[in-house]
Amino acid sequence: MDWARRTFIRLQITQNLESACSLSKLPLSNQTKGRLKSVFRRPLRP
Questions:
Q1: Distance between CA atoms of 22 and 26, rounded to whole angstroms?
Q2: pTM over 0.90
Q3: Reduced to 3 states, what is the DSSP secondary structure of residue 9?
Q4: Rounded CA gap, 27 and 2, in Å?
Q5: Residue 43 lies in a domain
Q6: Cβ atoms < 10 Å from Cβ of 44
Q7: 6-27: per-residue pLDDT in tens?
């Protein structure tokens, strides 16, 4: 179940980035969001 834990961690990182951007009042553009999602969608190597 290692992949589930990594997916959960990546999900939390994405949420933290989005909340940090909203806190700093810097809305993420769709291009940046897509880039972030593509980065986090990539499987992490052990």
A1: 6
A2: no
A3: helix
A4: 32
A5: no
A6: 11
A7: 888 888 888 887 777 666 665 6
- As a whole number of angstroms, the distance between CA 19 and CA 42 comes to 22
Helix axes 2-23, 30-41, angle to 10 degrees: 160
Instruction: Say whether pLDDT at 5 is over 60.
Output: yes
Residue 2, in any domain of the structure: no
Do the domain assignments include residue 22?
Answer: yes
Which residue in the block uniquely carries the two structure tokens 């972030």?
A: 36
How many domains does one find in the chain? Answer: 1
Residue 32 belongs to domain spanning: 7-36
Q: Is 14 exposed, middle or buried (0-12, 13-18, 19+ CB in 10 A)?
A: middle
